Structures are given as structure tokens and as C-alpha cells.
Amino acid sequence: MTSQNPASLPGANLPVLRGHNTALVLGLLRAAGPEGVSRLELAAHTGLTPQAVSKITSRLRDEGLAAEAGRRASTGGKPRTVLRLVPGARHALGLHLDRDEITAVLADLAGEPVAVRRAPLPFGEGAPALLDTVAEVVAVLRADGPPGRVLGVGVAAPGPLDHAAGVLHRVTGFPQWDGYPLRAALAERLALPVVLDKDTNAAALVPARAAGSFAYLHLGTGLGAGLVLDGTLYRGPRTGAGEFGHQVLHLDGPPCHCGKRGCVEALCLAAMDRGAPDEAARLLGVAAANLVELLDIDRVLLGGRTVLGHPEVFLRGVSDALDARIRLRGASAPVGPSDPSSEGSGSVPVSLLPGGARAVADGAAELVLGEVFGAGRLAAGRST
Questions:
Q1: How confident is residue 276, by pLDDT bands cut at 50, 70 and 90?
Q2: Do residues 156 and 53 both lie within one domain?
Q3: Tally of structural domains, the chain
Q4: pLDDT the model gives residue 172
């Protein structure tokens, strides 16, 4: 018998894979929405036997995670019972730790926010102040939200960081955080399992449910990228992919907090400080065009408070830069279905990331939910 990684199997009737199989079934229930799905359909999509599906769904009903959603007419025999996910049965916390603000979301199993809270975050004052603030915000958020078991906490923080080890590196502008075990510290303080990832990676998780390759560019207090290649979030072998803001566009440009000069992050932020969003958008577009040529991605998504403060300017500036690069290459291709939030007519559509200012926190909750629904096994990046 050939050895295979359980996480790579569509479905397997082995006791050791019960957790994997349950995640597959839960993922299909989530995708089906309120209309639900029958046990026979679950068996067909997972490759599990009807008996195995029946045992899993019975257990899910006993745990309150699934419920009947009525009956569906059958082509022969008695009508099929349809099951649906119970979104409010469990919750996940998503925390976006920005350099000056925390956004916290309590999400149900469908990924929908049931409570949201924002507060100032003393990121530069060190670990004790940050942990106190996070604990206070989480306590208020849980009190505001509905009752129910919280599965864990997804934390999205500025990079660079080590997702697997749960440790921050030299965050731009805050080198004192280098080597700090943030995941373990938060898990101890909150008494919950914690998953830590970069803000840009977390934000890219929600649109990553759809197939394809794209880059999410986040311009706020810093600049970074989340890269999804062939439907999979790409972190790199050392979890350092996406440090997009520190590509050098101008060799003799202004100094950057990272120690180099002329980084696109420094150039964009300097343009915004001068009140020139058009210039910042053009610079971001040039850097985005470099990324598109390097990876041949399908689309570019934009977000972050700076972009959201001038959405039309940034959509137009990035689209124009991509269109100009396409014209120089003498290539063109039709854009896919029209998007009301997109600009430009080039072969790579540009649009805003759904979710607005809450998008990163939503993605942070998805760090936890993705494991529950078989969308990604995060055990190596989780602290219990």
C-alpha cells in the first residue's frame, strides 16, 4: 500500500482520519449554505461510504453543529433528508493587530461577523501593554457577542514573522519585537488556541476560497502582499513571502525603516504625507506590474486604510500602470466578468478586497475556521 499524507486525501474510511473526514463533511455543509445537502450527496463528493457519512453527520448533530433542513424529492424511494450547518454553534475570534489599532471580530461558522470592536493599540509600547489591550478587547467582544464555544483565535499582525513558530521578526518601524513569541504569549493570556499569520496573508484567505491566482496588496501604516497561487496561500519555505513593500524602486530614494532606500513602501507613504495620493497610486501600480509580470497572476486586489481612504484613485492608478505595461509588451486579453468595484481594461483586473476596513480581521478568523472545514491544516502554526 502506498503511503499518502492524510491531508491530501479526498476522503478515507480509516479511523485515524476521522478528524480529516469530519472536516471534509463540515466544509461541504458550509459551502451548501442554508439550503443544505443530503447524506448521499456528501458521500458522493467526499468518496466516503454512506455508512461513514451517516456516523459523521450523527455525531455533528449530537454536537449541535448540524441540523435537518427539510427533505428533498428523490427520483426513487423516500425523500432525502437534507442537513445544514448551524453557524452559531461555534465561533472564532479574528484579531487584526495594526501598528496603532486593533480590530476584533467574533465570527460564526459561516464566517459572518456577529460582533466587532475597534480600539487604539499601543504596539510600540511593548508586550505587556499590547497583551493587556488585546485581553480587554477580547473580553468585551465576547460579552457583546452571542453565547457559544470559541474554537480559537486567529491573529493577523504586521510582518515579517514566522507563521510556523508563532514569532515576530523585525516589524518595520518596531525592531524591538524581533524574536518575540507572540502566539504563545497570547495563547497563555487568552486561554485559547491561537494561530498567528501576517495581516496580508490573513486578508487573502477569504477570497482564496475561489480558485485562481491573485495578489492582495495592503497599503495602510505599511505595505505588504498576500499571494495566492493556484488557489493556495503561498507563505514560502520560511513563511517570509509577501514582503512586497521592500522592493526597491528608486536606488537613491528616501530611507526606509527596513534600512534600505527607495522602497515602494517608503515612496508611497512619503507621497501620502505630501498629500499626493495620485503619486502613491502610480508608484503602487508600478510595483504591482512588476509582481504581475513575475508571477503571471489573474487579478490584483487592493485594501488597507490608505487605499480605502482614496479607493477610486488607487483603483485607477494601479489599473493604468498594469495597462501601460501590457501595451508595452504588445499583449492584450479580455477581462473576465465585469466587477463594479474594478477599474481598467487590461488583462489583469484590479478591484477592492471585499470586507473593507474589517477584511483583515475577517481573514484572521478564517485562520481558525479554515482548519475546522478542511480548508487548510494549520497545526504546525497553532498554539494550544
A1: very high
A2: no
A3: 3
A4: 78
